[in-house]
């Protein structure tokens, strides 16, 4: 029976041949056009990347290797007695392009358990930071401190490897990083919020449940939430800030620790992953201003208008690609209906969902008035007592490692080159349009 790495290599060789054929036969075929506005407006809609792990449809939402979130919730292997997919299975799917068996998922859990040792100097680096440091800063510093362990960097520095070997060391680093991130994230949480009272890992648990355990939440339904959370936040095709950054930095052959840490700095921005903390902050402000509890729709609408009039965005709403309610929002709503239908904060999130879209639509400029993944996640975490919202983006980051590191393995296996798009000046564009 072949190992995961051997299976990946076989798939990668097949895919590389497919890409070579495509390039040879259709390398000059035009697949799009670019307007001047797109150049100024964040390259929206410009196809410029290949990401094999997932594809985002504006109306249907994300599909991982062709499978939608509802399909994955049904078809991926579950923990014994559980109902939510195990993220180990999603990683297997994104890496190999095929659904795993129960045994494949158990093997992945065990492999990550064996690889999960974090050297002490990583904790020392985090300990050197003041407690007031944002958890995302602690997280990226922890990852950077762990770069000493990069097999890719060591092998490259030795001068003994060539381009055909890069995928192998990238694969090793990706597996080790994924295995170790929950330990680093939990350490940050316990240090910042629980007086440094750390909880040792329990490798009899799956990856997400063990993470929940190390955070200090040993409740079967919280384990289920973590399995779902880690699955739905894992990937959102390649153009979003975190995924694109990992790909870009990795394209310079910066090792997976450097590339992933760079991506996490992008995830830490309020228009991207930090939106999950911003949503809860905004809802708490609303509750405080409106006297607590579950405000009525008119009160919510007035608060939304006030936020907009202050020149701010409504966090958790809108998307650069999606044009419908995010299926990741709906998956969380479904989880909440099953596990915590009467939770007040969750009910407030649902009421906000009824109020915000028509208001954003009325503005006339917002392309997507519907909620994204971040609109719901905080309320679920709060329910279980994980109330320290500055930590929420770290959870997103641990999950995001699955998609972006599977993709990085593919980047090196396909031998993708350094990324270097062309930029121009406004003067260049003025001259260009004059010549039209
Ligand atoms: N509230 C208020 N205004 C919004 C808005 C929102 N939620 N979403 C978009 N707009 C505004 C934009 O700020 C922009 O205004 P200006 O023209 O005055 O600058 C206009 O509508 C057009 O923007 P767009 O094309 O609809 O959206 P973009 O592709 O530029 O940006 C996003 C997408 C997500 C950054 C934006 O919708 C936003 O800021 N949302 C709130 C933050 C958020 O929830 N981010 C998380 C996204 C998911 C993730 O990555 O985790």
TrEMBL record:
Annotated EC: 2.3.3.16
InterPro entries for the chain: Citrate_synth-like_lrg_a-sub (IPR016142), Citrate_synth-like_sm_a-sub (IPR016143), Citrate_synthase (IPR002020), Citrate_synthase_AS (IPR019810), Citrate_synthase_euk (IPR010109), Citrate_synthase_sf (IPR036969)
Assigned keywords, A-Z: Transferase
A Pfam family this chain is assigned to: Citrate_synt
Uppermost EC category: transferase
Transferase among keywords: yes
Annotated GO MF terms: citrate synthase activity
Keyword Transferase (UniProt): yes
The protein's annotated pathway: Carbohydrate metabolism; tricarboxylic acid cycle; isocitrate from oxaloacetate: step 1/2
GO BP, one annotated term: tricarboxylic acid cycle
Family: Belongs to the citrate synthase family.
The protein's name: citrate synthase (unknown stereospecificity)
Organism encoding this protein: Thermoflavifilum thermophilum
Lineage: Bacteria, Pseudomonadati, Bacteroidota, Chitinophagia, Chitinophagales
């Amino acid at each position: 029976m072949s190992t995961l790495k051997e299976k990946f290599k076989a798939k990668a060789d097949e895919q590389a041949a497919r890409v070579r054929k495509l390039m040879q036969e259709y390398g000059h075929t035009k697949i799009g056009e670019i307007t001047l506005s797109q150049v100024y407006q964040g390259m929206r809609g410009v196809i410029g990347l290949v990401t094999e792990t997932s594809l985002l449809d504006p109306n249907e939402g994300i599909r991982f290797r062709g499978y939608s979130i509802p399909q994955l919730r049904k078809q991926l292997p579950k923990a014994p007695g559980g109902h939510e997919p195990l993220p180990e299975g999603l990683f297997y799917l994104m890496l190999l392009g095929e659904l795993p068996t129960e045994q494949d998922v158990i093997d992945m859990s065990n492999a990550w358990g064996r690889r999960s040792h974090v050297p002490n100097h990583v904790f020392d680096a985090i300990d050197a930071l003041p407690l007031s440091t944002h958890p995302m800063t602690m997280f990226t510093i922890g990852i950077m401190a762990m770069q000493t362990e990069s097999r890719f960097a060591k092998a490259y520095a030795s001068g003994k490897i060539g381009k055909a070997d890069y995928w192998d060391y990238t694969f090793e680093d990706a597996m080790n990083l994924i295995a170790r991130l929950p330990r680093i994230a939990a350490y940050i949480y316990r240090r910042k919020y629980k007086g440094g009272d750390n909880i040792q890992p329990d490798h009899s648990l799956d990856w997400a449940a063990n993470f929940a355990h190390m955070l200090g939440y040993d409740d079967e339904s919280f384990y289920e939430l973590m399995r779902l959370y880690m699955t739905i936040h894992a990937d959102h095709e390649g153009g979003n800030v975190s995924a694109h950054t990992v790909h870009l930095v990795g394209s310079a052959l910066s090792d997976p620790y450097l590339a992933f840490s760079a991506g996490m700095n992008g995830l830490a921005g309020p228009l991207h992953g930090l939106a999950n903390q911003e949503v809860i902050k905004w809802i708490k402000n609303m509750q405080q201003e409106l006297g607590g509890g579950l405000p009525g729709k008119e009160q919510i609408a007035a608060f939304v208008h006030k936020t907009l009039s202050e020149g701010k965005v409504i966090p958790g709403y809108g998307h650069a690609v999606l044009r419908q309610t995010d299926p990741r929002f709906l998956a969380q709503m479904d989880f909440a209906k099953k596990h915590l239908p009467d939770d007040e904060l969750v009910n407030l999130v649902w009421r906000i969902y009824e109020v915000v879209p028509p208001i954003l639509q009325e503005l006339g400029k917002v392309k997507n008035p519907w909620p994204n993944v971040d609109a719901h996640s905080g309320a679920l975490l709060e329910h279980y007592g994980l109330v320290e919202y500055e930590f929420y983006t770290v959870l997103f980051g641990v999950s995001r490692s699955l998609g972006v590191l599977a993709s990085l393995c593919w980047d090196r296996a396909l031998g993708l080159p350094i990324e270097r798009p062309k930029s121009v000046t406004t003067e260049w564009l003025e001259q260009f349009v004059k010549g039209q």
